[in-house]
Write a structure and sequence with these properties.
alpha+beta; six-stranded antiparallel beta sheet; about 20% strand
Amino acid sequence: MVRNSSESYNNQKLKIISSRLQDYFSLDQGVIMGSTAVVSRKMHQESGKHSGEISIFRDRDAGLYYLQTEEPNKVVHIDVLHRPGEINQVDVANRIRRIIPAYLTVVDRNHDRSEEEKNLAAANLARKVILYTAMGYGTVIDPDQKAVRGTDDRYIGHVHILAKLVPRYYSLVYCIIDEVERSVIYQGGELRPVFKIVHYGGQRDIPLTSRSSLYLPPITDNMPEVLKRQNMFQIITGLSIQLGSMEAAADLLQALTPVRNYKLANLHRIHENLGEILSQIVSANLARLTPFGYTLTKTGREMEEFLHRNQKELAAEIRKTIRQFKAVPARYRSFRYSHLKSKEKQFPDRHKTVPPNSNKSWPGEIAVPETVVQAAKRCFLSGSSRIKISDRDIRVYARKSYAPVDTCLLVDCSGSMMGERIKAVGYVAKYLLLNSREKISLVTFQEKEAKVMVPFTRSYEDLHKGLAKIVPSGLTPLAHGITVTLDMFKNKRPRNPLLVLVTDGIPNHPLWTTDPVKDALKAAAMIAEQKIRFVCIGIDPDYKFLPLLAEAGKGNIYIVDENDRNNMIDIITREKKQYQGN
C-alpha cells in the first residue's frame, strides 16, 4: 500500500514536470532547471560575453542543428555546466542508464510487463539519449569506452546531452540532470551555476532574459508532508535570492491580494525582473491573476504561513546557499597601480614540530610531548636506562602565518544603482562575510552625504539590517564617501584594510570646492597616503575618470559591463589573495 502511494506521487510529480517543460517548449523558450542546467528544444550555447549566461536561438532547432533529423521539435537539448575539466562520459552514461528502468516503471505504471519487455523498453529509451563530454561521446546504452583526454574542447565546461523524447517522457530530463550532477561531483569536478538565459529570434527578435531559475518545484495536496516542506523551502529560498532577502519575498507574497496590489508598483521599481518572477509564481499555481488583480491561491497562502513559521530555518538555508556559491573567472579590463602587501600574523602550527633553529627568527613554543618522545628515542638507541632531555631533543611548534584582510565596500547608491545592481552588492557582502574569518563593513554615498551603514563586523544580522536600509537615489558624492570611510578606518582600526569602491558613474556633488571630480581625486590621494589597498569596480563607467581615480589612490581598477555577483566575488577574492601574497 505504501509502495502504491509513493508511486502515485512520483508519477504525478513527473507528469507536472513534463507538462511544465511542454509549456516552455511550445513557446520556443528554454528553462533553467535547478541551478546548473539549461533545457530547450533549440540550439543554445554559453555566451562569450558573460560566464554562466546562455544564449538560446529560437530559429535553430536542436535536432536539425546537431543531429540533422528530418523533423523539428523531436530533440531535447540539455547542458549541465561545470568548471573546465575532463568528465568521463562512461560514468555519466552508466548512471543515466541505471535509473531509466525505475523511471519507466513509475511513468508507465505497467507492472504486467515481463522482465524482458521492461529491459527492452529501457534499452530503447537509453539509445535515444546521446551525451558529449570533453573525453568522448556516445549513446547512454553504448558510450565510447575509449575516452581520450582533450578529445573535444567544445565540451570542456559542460556536459552536452541530446535526447529524442516524446512529451510523455520529458520529465526524464529532471532525472538525467540529477545523475549528471552526481557524476561530475563524483569525478572531482565542480558544478557551475547558470545566471541568465537570453532568447534570440522569434517574437520580433526581441531578446527575452532570465536571470534566475524558472523552475519552481510543484506543491500538491496529496504529496507527502516531508516533500511538501522541502519544496516550500526551495521556493522561498529561490525567491529570497532573486529579490535580495527573505523580507522582500514576504513583502511580495503580502502584496499578492487585490487590496494590496498597489504595492506592486513600488516593487517593480526596485526589482527589474519582477514581471518574470510573478509569471513564475502564477505558473507554479501559487497565485492567479483575476480581473481585480493578483491573489494568492490556497497553496500560496500555505507557503506564506510556512514562511512566517520557519523564518529561522529559512534564513539558515539562505545563508547556506550564499556560502556555497562558486564564482567563475570574470571578464574585465583592469589598470593596476597597487603593490601593497598585507602584514602577517604568526602563531604556532600545532600539527607540525621542528628543531628550534629551523624557525629562524621565530622562537616558537616548546612542543612538550614531541620533545619527550625524541629524548626517549635517543636514550633507547644509546642504551641508556634513563630518559634525560638535552638541547638536541627539544622540538618547537612550526611557524604558521595568517594575513587577515578586513574589507570595506564603499558603494555608490545613486539612482542608477537601483534594482539588480544594489541587490548584487548585498549578495556579495553576505558572501564575503560567510566565507572568511575577517570583518566586513559597508559605507554608502548618495544625494549629498555618505553614511556608515555597517561598521566593521562579523555579525551576519548586523550586515543584513544595514543592507535593508539602503534605498538608491539621487547624486554621487564620491569625495564625501571616501573621507567618511577613512574616518571610520581611524576609529575602528581594521586589520590590513581593503577598500572596494563600487560605482557606475562619475562624481557629481563636490565636497571642498565646486569641482566634484577634482575633490574625488584629492580624496583618493588620501587613500594612497594612508597606504590602504584600494580597488575600484566600475560598472559600464566613464572610461576617462576611473583610471585617474585609481592612479590617484594607487589602487587597481576593474571595468566590467555589469556588476553581477559573480564578477564582483571573483574580483574581490582575487584581490584579497594578491594582497595576502597567495
